[in-house]
Design a protein that fits this description.
mainly alpha; two-stranded antiparallel sheet; 7 helices
């Protein structure tokens, strides 16, 4: 870290009042509750509008007179894996590691690569075992899942930025990882709602929004998490 950046960090720390640990924990808990409520609310509104309040969809009509149903065990496996990846993504995005300045560039870059790759690989790997969900669904290219991911993840992304507040060394990269983490949390809801595992559908409806959120997170991170002159 350069001498100039070190001086800016120390000046910003000295100028900003230091709240107690209890106050910070209470604030972050309230923000976390608001993030969860916004995501769940967006999911329920979307499900009400698009599928008659079906929060868990095991299957549907692939083509006229041909329907497929997902196994409950498949849903449990894919949703459980997504929960695990989401938890790791939150740990990476919101934690500071061993430094008060935040995680290193290498850790953040690893997270930016591994989060979407892990989610896609787990979904495809589990679905291959069961076979049928991998077939093409011509009527479901993925735009509804893309919209659902963005709606569910918007509130959590803003909440993560509020919880972290500062990332003086890599603000844009930290914001991008928060976008991936918000998308990983939304992936859980989308996976429960969407019965399709056809890879082109997954790339458009499930993976692409992760990168859209990462781009938005990078822009917001550069604006909100960097040190600003007082």
């Amino acid at each position: 870290m350069s001498d100039e950046l070190r001086a800016r960090v120390l000046a910003a720390a000295a100028a900003e009042p230091s709240p107690t640990r209890a106050v910070v924990s209470r604030r972050n808990m309230l923000i976390g509750v608001a993030a969860a409520a916004s995501g769940i609310g967006a999911f329920m509104v979307f499900a009400e509008c698009m599928s008659g309040s079906q929060l868990l969809r095991l299957g549907g009509e692939v083509v006229p007179q041909q329907s497929l149903e997902r196994s409950v065990w498949l849903v449990a496996a894919t949703v459980g894996g997504a929960l695990g990846v989401g938890a790791m993504a939150l740990w990476l995005a919101l934690g500071r590691g061993r430094s008060m300045l935040g995680r290193s560039r290498r850790w953040l870059l690893y997270g930016g690569v591994l989060i979407p790759v892990s989610l896609l690989a787990w979904k495809v790997g589990c679905s291959i075992v069961f076979g049928d969900p991998m077939v093409p669904w011509p009527e479901r290219p993925g735009e509804r899942c893309l919209a659902l991911t963005l709606l569910v993840a918007a509130g959590p992304l803003l909440s993560f930025l509020a919880i972290r507040r500062r990332a003086p060394v890599h603000p844009a990269l930290n914001g991008a990882v928060m976008g991936f983490a918000a998308g990983a949390c939304a992936w859980v809801a989308v996976d429960a709602w969407c019965p399709v595992a056809y890879v082109p559908h997954l790339l458009l409806g499930h993976v692409l929004p992760l990168f859209v959120l990462a781009g938005a997170g990078a822009l917001l991170g550069q604006t909100l998490l960097s040190l600003r002159p007082r």
